[in-house]
Amino acid sequence: MDKEQYFDIEAPIIPGVSLGGINQGMQVKGLEKIFRTDQYFARDKKISLVTTPSLRYIEYWYMGGIMRLKVDIYDGRISNIIATAGYQGTVNGVLRVGMTVREVLQVDASFTCYSPPGGLMSPNFLGICLYFTPNFDAETDSLSDYLDHKILGIGLLNEFNAEGDDVYVMLYGLNHPRFNG
């Protein structure tokens, strides 16, 4: 990794664990020097502080948003990491930012759309969400209409969302992998 790079944009994405060499859930403590050196709103800096409507989280974008880190201001933990266009790492060598929904379904046909935010999740790839459009509505849209859409980002998932709901049970119901052995 180049010493000017703060994070490794070629690192593999380990579902539910790490992206860019950063572990989800880790304390920001120890990374403060990195954040403080370039903490500006300008998008051309290595690290940009991005305003969010939340009073609980702040978001940092690395290299214009190639990696986006959401930090919980109450406990100082990285609560969400998303890789977007320009990220070179893959999930298990087969899933990457920029591939189409069709290509994703060829890798694993069990990917199901979860909306909002227009992301694909699979019981075979627990711990990640593949984002392809913020406009998908699972109640009115068909995934077949989006086969040529590109994956815009890959985000790490914890089992629970910010409201404390188990996102896998919400998506898979009794077909949740935990209930199937």
Would you give an account of this structure?
- The chain is α+β, with helices and mostly antiparallel strands and 181 residues long.
- The chain has two domains: 18-84, no CATH class; 101-171, no CATH class.
- The protein contains three helices and ten strands.
- The protein has helices at residues 32-37, 101-107, 167-172, and strands at 18-19, 22-23, 47-50, 57-62, 67-72, 78-84, 112-114, 119-121, 128-131, 153-156.
- The strands form two sheets. Strands 3-4-5-6-10-9-8-7 form an eight-stranded antiparallel sheet.
- The protein is globular.
Question: What is the number of E strands?
Answer: 10
* Overall tally of domains: 2
Calculate the mean pLDDT score and round it: 77
Run of helices and strands: EEHEEEEHEEEEH
Quickly give the structural class.
Answer: alpha+beta
Strand content: 15-25%
Distance between the termini: 40 Å
Identify low-pLDDT runs. 38-44
Report helical residue fraction: 10-25%
The major sheet is characterized as:
8 strands, antiparallel
Any idea what the radius of gyration is?
16 Å
